[in-house]
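Instructor's aside before we start: the two examples that follow are unrelated to each other. I chose them only because their records fit on one page, so don't look for a connection. First example below.
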Amino acid sequence: QVQLVESGGGLVQAGGSLRLSCAASRSIASIYSMGWYRQAAGKQRALVATINSGATTNYADSVKGRFTISRDNAKNMIYLQMNNLKSEDTGVYYCAGSPGVLRTDRTYWGQGTQVTVSS
């Protein structure tokens, strides 16, 4: 079991930047896959970015070139740097982790942090 706690959300103007952080309650070295998902109002939760223990990353097409995911196993943290934010990036951002494949195998979730981008 691992608890994940997100922080760093808030209100930002379009074109601005935010950095989300996710703190894990124990070592993430054994958590193969970690990532960020977001859920806009009235929509399903969708993948934003993932990173595995080998630091291989994967991004949704809509955020490629603007968002960067990273993990710091020594600090038990993952991050999402979001640049050039757009109104369509608005939503609740969730941190997730899995010893296998996210959303296929057992997946741990944080409580979410709200990001609101004003146009």
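Example two begins here.
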Amino acid sequence: QVQLVESGGGLVQPGGSLRLSCAASGTPFGFATMGWYRQAPGKQRELVARITSGGSTIYADSVKGRFTISRDNAKNTVYLQMNSLKPEDTAVYYCNRFATYWAWGQGTQVTVSS
């Protein structure tokens, strides 16, 4: 059974930065395209960024140029570096395999507020 554990969220002022981590266990990780998703209150979960096993990346327009997704296959971990944060980035952030989901983790709360 795959377990995903997200961490690194918190409260940050607009313009600040956070680095999220997601550790996967229970499965070979390196073959999977992984994504970071977020869900704001009252909104549907949306894909923020994804990274293939080879390191190719795609970003949602809303975060392009501000967020960077990366992975360390040896550590079964995917990261999301978030810079120039905006209040509209406030959400619970989750990682998961792209398109064909494993069980969702608990997520990590990111709050951008002054």
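DSSP finds no helices and ten strands in the chain.
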